[in-house]
Write a structure and sequence with these properties.
The complex is a heterodimer of chains A (about 150) and B (about 425). Chain A is of the alpha+beta class and about 150 residues long. Helices cover about 40% and strands about 20% of the residues of chain A. A 4-stranded mixed beta sheet of chain A has the order 3-2-1-4, covered by helices on one side. In chain A, helix 2 crosses helix 3, helix 3 runs parallel beside helix 5 and helix 4 packs antiparallel against helix 5. The longest helix of chain A is centred in the middle third of the chain and has 16 residues. Chain B is α/β, with parallel strands linked by helices and about 425 residues long. In chain B, helix 12 packs across helix 14. In chain B, about 50% of the residues are buried. The mean pLDDT of chain B is about 95. Classes of the chains: A alpha+beta (about 150), B alpha/beta (about 425). The interface between A and B is medium-sized, with 23 and 21 residues.
Chain lengths: ~150, ~425
Amino acid sequence: MSDLRELYQEVIFDHYRRPRNCGVLPQANRKAEGYNPLCGDRVTLYLLVEDGIVKDVRFEGTGCAIATASASMMTEALKGRTEAEAEALFGRFHDMVTAPPDVPSPGNPALGKLATLSGVREFPARVKCATLAWHTLHAALHDEGGTVSTE
Amino acid sequence: MKPIEPLTIPDPQTLARWRDDFPILRERVHGKPLVYLDNGATTQKPAVVIETERDYYEHTNANVHRGVHLLSQRATEAYEGARARIARFLNAARPEEIVYVRGTTEAINLVAQSDVRPRVKPGDEILISAMEHHSNIVPWQFVCEQTGARLKVVPIDDRGALDIDAYERMLSERTRIVALTHASNALGTINPVARLIDIAHARGVPVLLDGAQAIAHVPVDVRALDCDFYAFSGHKIYGPTGIGVLYAKASRLEAMPPWQGGGDMIRSVTFERTEYNAIPWKFEAGTPNIAGAVALAAALDYVDSIGADVIGAHEAKVLAYATDAMRALPHVRLIGTADEKVGIVSFVHEDVHAHDIGTILDRYGVAIRAGHHCAMPVMQRFGVPATVRASFALYNARDDVDALVAAMAKVQEVFGR
């Protein structure tokens, strides 16, 4: 099944099995929790933001391959970015995974490795898995207490 | 009584005929034949149910209990006839013991607010179990918040069976209601409800059974069980969505205040004083789901035409076959292995999340549920975020289990790279 191959790319398995930046960040000054009530997945995101720049980021949680890989790749992509750049990246990522399946993928060099998650758009039920960490990022950047939900 | 039919049926021809009764089973999904194993969420509908609903709208539709015109009389007869049919299906003493609701959830909320809330005091107890669906937890939490009552939860063992000793211990002189599932939606466990009801009644405590997962799979006789309340949803027993049933003993319904106010639930209204209608209508404010009620009666006719015992025996065989097949798979662990179960196989995979399994199975035409099944405390009890659940109905057979196993091999293939 080609669309399954498209969804579950090697890079995604790699990040699912060996998630990067996984764990607590003791010196974090921003933190948010994300929750997907559909599947019960949870993610906690820790950010160290100094002078408007994401200096460090880590995440903890349990999730499916898509949610875990997305969180892992997101943490890699965020380091060194300004808060505005991080938000803009969320916007581009969200556009990519929610684009109609019949439209050719626009291809966005700014997304880098994250583009491997573009196969999610063929699986509308999985968009929330892919965006869970990102919604949590948004909450952390805006310092919204409590738990952000995908619903 | 069906004394002559042996429980070895269905033969392949009979099963093929049952399958033919359900038009949706001819659908293809992602280019594959549909293998529908999500019956715990909702069952598919036989043609006779679909036709009954259509026929109602084409030949009968009018409002009930109102008009003098012919259609209104026909609609009222069909609606009240369906009530009598449901009463017969459950072996209730009288049709008036059947209250139409939207589904199991609404039935439980009705009992919580109308029967239990007015008679509990701070420190009183409501007893449920650790295998309940959220719909048999949250309505009781409302009552606890409103009254100061306490929610007590009977534990379950590692196989997913209720701890009956703990149940006996936890039934106290403060217990005002026992609310238990007849069969667990996440684990499949069938509770020994007759015994549990006897124990509660010996202490004067009424019992509500959540029958959502049992109604289509286990013969239910409310008088033999002597339960005080029995709740179920039409769509779980081959009927439409949006129609459900609360069975309650007439004496309890008589004592309960109405729940919602409006048309049809009154006898007379002035601005000073309103007299309520008799049971069950005092609980049925507003225009009800008439077509749904009529089609639900058709679904019950359909089930009776096969026989609840025949269906149960067939599903038990499919369950046994599926249990062995899933146990034989590498990296798979079953969640819920009680001795008495309805046709539900819940499992987790060591390396693959339930949601990923659900996506891959779907691409091979196999529809299952992946998630917490609206039973998050059950997931916590077994230390998993989610499970994959295959749940069977009368039209499922070994072929469907084989398709599930073949699709699980594809999961292994995708994730084993």
